[in-house]
Design a protein that fits this description.
alpha/beta; Rossmann fold; seven-stranded parallel beta sheet; 7 strands; globular; binds nicotinamide-adenine-dinucleotide
């Protein structure tokens, strides 16, 4: 699918990996609706990017919020061709604390709700918008008003993590939420195939984003040392390059791609 003149919903687009995706899509002539909790960063970004970008304040776990972002894409750009779901949080919590007290259940649920249920929420509302557009265009074709084939009508890209496979101590919520995102990929790709909508997931390794800046310098150096090659954190632009390739390459579907410099977490 071409990026130029097509429109994409980017959740978590006000920071880190999502922001890099927003910039890459705009640079290739596409339109973006940024859906993020962070209103000040979102507004600053659209002021910089101009007419090709819109911002909608959004919690991806809310049906109303995500629908408002989809509606914005339809109103501002005439419809949606896809979504790149980058909104997510890292929850760090052991099952038992130092005194063997059990973990807080709310914290566990919060990670699963935002990372997994939020991804499903975005996928269902974006898929509905694309499928309705495809169906109405098919009706027009049947009436002889327009020429459209059924190829590559939409793309839904989710962001998991290598923690889905290599979960570390303290990552029970994060790893299981991201494993859930991996688990969404094939059933959704199979279901949406008849609409010409592809579903792909990226599992990033360790990337230099604000999410990673919260960890101590020493832990960051250890992470860099653990990457076989290149021995550094990933650059968000490298994530964005993979996203734009996935959008462009119609034969990528129903798969999870690790983007990690060969790191395997222990
Ligand atoms: N940075 C990494 O090393 C790394 C590695 C693996 C996976 N990931 C995943 O990539 C994604 C992006 O991470 P990042 O490093 O860019 O983080 P980030 O913290 O820089 O950006 C995340 C953005 O998501 C937004 N957000 C959080 N919860 C939200 C919600 N409920 N609704 C809407 N927006 C919300 C935040 O406001 C923020 O702008 C996350 O899903 C993260 O788990 C990151």
């Amino acid at each position: 699918m071409h990026i130029e003149k097509n429109s994409f919903l980017v959740t978590g687009g006000a920071s880190g990996l999502g922001e890099a995706v927003v910039r890459a899509i705009i640079a290739q002539g596409g339109n973006v609706v940024i859906a993020d909790l962070n209103e000040s960063a979102g507004h600053a970004l659209i002021n910089e990017l101009g007419d090709q970008a819109r911002f909608v304040p959004c919690d991806i776990t809310s049906g109303d919020d995500v629908q408002a972002a989809v509606d914005m894409a339809e109103k501002a750009f005439g419809g949606l061709q896809g979504s790149v779901n980058c909104a997510g949080i890292a929850v760090v919590q052991k099952l038992l604390d130092r005194d063997n007290n059990p973990a807080d259940l709310e914290s566990f649920s919060r990670g699963v709700n935002i990372n997994l249920v939020g991804s499903f929420n975005v996928a269902r509302l974006v898929a509905a918008s694309i499928a309705k557009r495809v169906a109405s265009e098919a009706t027009m074709t049947a009436e002889g008003n327009t020429e459209k084939n059924n190829a590559d009508q939409g793309i839904i890209i989710n962001t998991a993590s290598i923690a889905a496979f290599d979960g570390q101590v303290g990552q029970a919520s994060y790893s299981s939420s991201k494993a859930g995102v991996v688990g969404l990929t094939l059933p959704l790709a199979r279901e949406l195939a008849r609409h010409g909508i592809r579903v792909m997931t990226i599992a990033p390794g360790v990337f230099a984003t604000p999410m990673m800046q919260s960890i101590p310098e020493k832990a960051r150096e250890q992470l860099e040392a653990g990457v076989p090659y290149p021995k550094r954190l990933g650059n968000p632009t490298e994530f964005a390059k993979l996203v734009t390739h996935i959008i462009d390459n119609a034969y990528l579907n129903g798969e999870v791609i690790r983007l990690d410099g060969a790191i395997r977490m222990v």
